[in-house]
Amino acid sequence: MAVVLVTGGTRGIGAACVQWFLANGDQVATTFRSDDPPTAPEGADPDRFLAVRCDVRNSDEVDAAFTAVEERWAPVQVLVANAGITMDSLMLRMSDAAFHDVIDANLTGSFRVAKRAVAKMLRAHAGRIIFVSSVGAFVGLPGQANYAASKAGLVGMARAIAREVGSRQITVNVVAPGLIDTDMTAALGADRVALMTGQVPLGRAGTVGDVAAVVGFLASDAAAYVTGAVVPVDGGLGMGL
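Above: the chain's sequence. Below: its structure in token form.
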């Protein structure tokens, strides 16, 4: 049984990761930003679930979230840095604030939670960090210069951290989902989703469960010798990139 923290685990890929780890018997915390804290998924043991209010753009809230997990159970052993936002716009129409806000949430926010997690993982000489990136980091999508930059930045950051902490048996990896059936994907519009689906070699969108299973593998003992890797879960959309 591991202590797991999934940021942004209230819906989509994050929620699927929460459910995967709970089904695996782990103690799972998730961050949330809404007014109402989420409850344990149906059928899950509520004693193994914890919701902590946290905006990853705020270092004090990040520290408080980790402290809450530590006081409830123990230091975080598996971190899934999934929280992120989109503010799409063509480059010439994109404001500096829109670019900065997406970078702060998706990239710097992931740095904040990883830094806080590593502090305790180093002492334990063990740990798993999984960053959730996107195929958009490699193929580029119009209107997502900020999002693509943030998700591409996760790869370089993950590999730098992997080299820093590898001697303490801490692995750092990246999952890069492609077209996944989520609310965020639906917001792109039916025409755009249909166009993207036509570019996927497997000919369909993936499920959040497809991504959660890969995240779970990277957190498992079976992946103890995997670090600095980028694992695509995209049906072949970014093949070779």
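The mean pLDDT is 95.
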